[in-house]
C-alpha cells in the first residue's frame, strides 16, 4: 500500500480537500495537563513513586495515577468536575494494608475508575517452535517483587519512565499522557485522543533461560464494581501507519447493561524486536481471553489498587509475543509493545485521506471508463441500427 500510495500522492484533489478538512477538525477537543510526582510527600517515598497527571477538560477531569509501589499500575479516574483533585494519605498508602489511602475530592464527582496492573512476565521454552505456552513455563517474574527505578518524569507532554532489572537486562514502561488528538511517532503509531494515554513496554537485554525462549506479559484490569469485559478485534484494509498490520484489539469495559464503553485498553497485535525497527523486526502477538482474577491478590500486589478500591474486581489476560516460525527472543535480545489506555470509546483509525484518495481514483477511474464505454456502446448501437438498415435480409 505504501508504494502505491507514493505514486498517487499528487494525484487526487479530493484527497487534498480531505486533508484540509481533517486538519481543521483536529484540535477541537483539548485537555490542560499538569503532572506532579509524589503529591503531598516531602521527599522520595520508600518503595516506589506515585505520579499524578491531571487532564482537565471543559467540565470534567481525567486523573492518571501511575505507581511502582508493587506491580506497576496505571489508575484512571474520570470525574465530572473541572476542579476535582486527588488526596493521598501517605501513611495508609505506604502501609498497603487498608483501602482508603487515595481518594478523589469531591467524591461525588467520580464517574468511572479503572486500573491496569502489569502483573507478571512469563517465559517458556518453545522447544518445538509451536508458540503455544503449555508445560514448558519457567518460574514467572512477579513484577510486584521487582526493584524499580525512581520514576523519571520529563515534559512537555508528561512522560514517565520506569525500569526494573530482570535477568541482567531490564523491563521498562514509558507512560505518555496526551492533551490533544495525535499519533505516536514510532511504530505502531497508534492514534490517541485527549482521553487516552500511551504505555510502551519493552524488554531489553534480558538473558533468556533457554535459547528458544518466548515471553508473555500478564495484564489485569481492576474496577470497583464488576464490569463486563471483552476483547474486540477490528479489521481494517489500511495499514498505512502500522505496516503489515490490519487489526486492532480493544479490551473494553462496558456498562453493566452493555450499552456504553466506559474504558479501554487498545493495541495492535504487533511487537518489535529492535528499538529502532525496520519492517522485518515486526513480530505478531496474540492475547488470551479475559478471565476473572482474584481481586484480593490484585490489591496485595499493587499499592494503587489497595489504596483506591474497597472491593476490587479483577480480570486478566496474557499477551504472547511471537508466532511459530518467528525468531526467538535471543535473536535480538529486545522486544517492545505499545498500548493505549483511556476512557470512553477507543479512538478509531479512520481511512487516511491518502487511502480515500487512492480508493476514489482506483474505483472512480473504472467507473468513468465504464460510463464512457456505455456511452460509446450506445452511439455504436445507434450507428449499428442505422447501418443495419443498409443491408438487405438474406433469405
Ligand atoms: C459545562 O457545565 C455548564 C454548567 O453546568 C454547562 O452550562 C455547559 O454546557 C457545560 N459545557 C459542556 C461543554 O458540557
Ligand atoms: C492517615 O491515616 C492514618 C491511619 O489511618 C490516620 O491516623 C491519619 O490521621 C490519616 N492522616 C490524614 C492526614 O488523614
Ligand atoms: C497496617 O500497617 C501499619 C504499619 O505496619 C500498622 O500500624 C496498622 O495497624 C496496620 N493496619 C491494619 C488494619 O492492619
Ligand atoms: C516436542 O516434540 C517432541 C517430539 O515430537 C515431543 O516428544 C515433545 O513432547 C514436544 N514437546 C513439547 C513441549 O511439546
Ligand atoms: C512476590 O512477593 C509476594 C509477596 O511478598 C510473594 O507472595 C510471592 O511469592 C513473590 N513472588 C515471587 C515469584 O517470588
Ligand atoms: C531521565 O530521562 C531522560 C530522558 O529520557 C534522560 O536523559 C535522563 O538521563 C533520565 N534520568 C535518569 C535519572 O534516569
Ligand atoms: C473525551 O471526553 C470528553 C468528555 O467526556 C468528550 O466530550 C469527548 O468527546 C471525548 N473525546 C473523544 C475523542 O472521545
Ligand atoms: C539463539 O539460540 C539458537 C538455538 O540454540 C542459537 O543457534 C543461536 O545462536 C542463538 N542466538 C543468539 C544470538 O544467541
Ligand atoms: C497467563 O498464562 C499463564 C501461563 O500459561 C497462566 O498460568 C495464567 O493463568 C495466565 N493468565 C491469565 C490472566 O490468563
UniProtKB/TrEMBL annotation:
One of its GO terms (cellular component) is lysosomal membrane. Its main location: membrane. InterPro entries: NCU-G1. Keywords: Glycoprotein, Lysosome, Membrane, Signal, Transmembrane, Transmembrane helix. Pfam families: NCU-G1. Residues 1-27 form the signal peptide. It is found in: Lysosome membrane. The keyword Transmembrane applies. It is a single-pass type I membrane protein. The chain crosses the membrane at residues 354-379. Interacts (via lumenal domain) with lysosomal protein MFSD1; the interaction starts while both proteins are still in the endoplasmic reticulum and is required for stabilization of MFSD1 in lysosomes but has no direct effect on its targeting to lysosomes or transporter activity. Belongs to the GLMP family. PANTHER family: GLYCOSYLATED LYSOSOMAL MEMBRANE PROTEIN. Required to protect lysosomal transporter MFSD1 from lysosomal proteolysis and for MFSD1 lysosomal localization. This is Glycosylated lysosomal membrane protein. It comes from Salarias fasciatus (Jewelled blenny). The lineage of its organism: Eukaryota, Metazoa, Chordata, Craniata, Vertebrata. The gene is glmp.
